[in-house]
């Protein structure tokens, strides 16, 4: 066997070992993070002074019924056994029954989650489409009035409570001007003629070619989505400005200008291209933040999503629903975080070389 063959075989084995180690580390991170999420939600459910048995049966249930139900649910077992049972059920998607709706929690989540996903998706798109150009403009015009204006707009987005701004916008654009539809996802007049297929109303209306219903759906979603998009834009524009300032100070920008390239080509074709790599992570985390942080927005606009579902469940001491919704949101956040990390490694060749 030649030296070249041995060297090639050794490199191949090294690559395989590197891939196996990377996959093993990735799976370990996923498992550890998810177990941590389950542990946190489990102990929160035990710390909160709400008896789940009394929440199900009521305060006037006989003592023997309460005791029997407690045994059936496993609350008489040691805590570590309860946690193992909790993990097993959570991994199978069993979060128990909702006291509020009398349905399995997972069934309720499947019904309400598409509304939250639709709202968060449009909000993130608005935030990215507006926030990235504003961040680029602020970086290019560093220290100018435009830069200060973009930073003030972003600071306002961080500072103003979203529930207050939502009520003000409802008062102005719905109650006074009548430019948009009010709270809810669709008018009652369309509830019997519009059929939900995927749970994403905009997509369903396009598939069924119900253009009147589509207009009504867009009229309902534009205001809450714009509010979420504004807060997302504040974050994305600030991070874009930071990334662009770092790129504009690099030597390759000086070299590109020395070669006579136009500023438009340098900024949008080179600097933003390199800044787009970390921006993927920023946008993914912003989207995850929309999914978990839209509780107040959904409450103000009576948006029938996961945030409103968790809020109503919390007010009714329905801890199965609260913890189930929390686990789903946490799982989505973990998945998006890991996806952004994978995209970062795919788009940036420097991370693949490590």
From TrEMBL:
<feature type="transmembrane region" description="Helical">
    <location>
        <begin position="321"/>
        <end position="344"/>
    </location>
</feature>
<keyword id="KW-0472">Membrane</keyword>
<comment type="similarity">
    <text>Belongs to the binding-protein-dependent transport system permease family.</text>
</comment>
<keyword id="KW-1133">Transmembrane helix</keyword>
<feature type="transmembrane region" description="Helical">
    <location>
        <begin position="119"/>
        <end position="140"/>
    </location>
</feature>
<feature type="transmembrane region" description="Helical">
    <location>
        <begin position="152"/>
        <end position="175"/>
    </location>
</feature>
<keyword id="KW-0813">Transport</keyword>
<dbReference type="Pfam" id="PF00528">
    <property type="entry name" value="BPD_transp_1"/>
</dbReference>
<dbReference type="GO" id="GO:0071916">
    <property type="term" value="F:dipeptide transmembrane transporter activity"/>
</dbReference>
<dbReference type="InterPro" id="IPR045621">
    <property type="entry name" value="BPD_transp_1_N"/>
</dbReference>
<keyword id="KW-0812">Transmembrane</keyword>
<feature type="transmembrane region" description="Helical">
    <location>
        <begin position="19"/>
        <end position="44"/>
    </location>
</feature>
<feature type="transmembrane region" description="Helical">
    <location>
        <begin position="217"/>
        <end position="236"/>
    </location>
</feature>
<dbReference type="InterPro" id="IPR000515">
    <property type="entry name" value="MetI-like"/>
</dbReference>
<keyword id="KW-1003">Cell membrane</keyword>
<protein>
    <submittedName>
        <fullName>Peptide/nickel transport system permease protein</fullName>
    </submittedName>
</protein>
<dbReference type="InterPro" id="IPR035906">
    <property type="entry name" value="MetI-like_sf"/>
</dbReference>
<feature type="domain" description="ABC transmembrane type-1">
    <location>
        <begin position="113"/>
        <end position="344"/>
    </location>
</feature>
<dbReference type="GO" id="GO:0005886">
    <property type="term" value="C:plasma membrane"/>
</dbReference>
<dbReference type="Pfam" id="PF19300">
    <property type="entry name" value="BPD_transp_1_N"/>
</dbReference>
């Amino acid at each position: 066997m030649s030296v070249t063959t041995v060297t090639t075989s050794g490199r191949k084995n090294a690559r395989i070992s590197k891939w196996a180690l990377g996959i093993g580390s990735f799976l370990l991170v996923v498992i550890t993070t998810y177990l941590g999420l389950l542990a946190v939600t489990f102990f929160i459910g035990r710390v909160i002074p709400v008896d789940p048995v009394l929440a199900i049966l009521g305060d006037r249930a006989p003592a023997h019924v309460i005791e029997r139900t407690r045994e059936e649910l496993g609350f008489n077992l040691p805590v570590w056994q309860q946690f193992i049972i909790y993990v097993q059920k959570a991994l199978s998607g069993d979060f128990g029954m909702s006291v509020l709706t009398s349905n399995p929690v997972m069934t309720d989540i499947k019904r309400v989650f598409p509304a939250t996903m639709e709202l968060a998706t449009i909000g993130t798109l608005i935030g990215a489409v507006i926030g990235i150009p504003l961040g680029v403009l602020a970086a290019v015009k560093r220290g100018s009035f435009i830069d200060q204006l973009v930073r003030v707009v972003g600071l306002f987005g961080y500072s103003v409570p979203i529930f207050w701004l939502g009520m003000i916008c409802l008062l102005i654009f719905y109650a006074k001007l009548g430019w948009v539809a009010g709270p809810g996802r669709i008018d009652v007049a369309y509830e019997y003629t519009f059929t939900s297929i995927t749970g994403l109303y905009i997509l369903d209306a396009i598939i069924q070619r119900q253009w009147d219903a589509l207009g009504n759906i867009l009229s309902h979603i534009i205001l809450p989505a714009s509010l979420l998009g504004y807060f997302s834009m504040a974050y994305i524009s600030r991070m874009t400005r930071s990334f662009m300032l770092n790129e504009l100070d690099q030597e390759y920008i000086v070299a590109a200008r020395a070669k006579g390239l136009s500023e438009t080509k340098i900024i949008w074709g080179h600097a933003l291209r390199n800044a787009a790599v970390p921006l993927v992570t920023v946008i993914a985390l912003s989207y995850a933040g929309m999914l978990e942080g839209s509780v107040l927005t959904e409450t103000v606009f009576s948006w029938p999503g996961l945030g409103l579902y968790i809020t109503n469940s919390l007010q009714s001491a329905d801890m199965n629903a609260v913890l189930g919704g929390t686990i789903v949101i946490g799982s989505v956040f973990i998945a998006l975080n890991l996806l952004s990390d994978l995209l970062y490694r795919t788009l940036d060749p420097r991370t693949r070389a490590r």
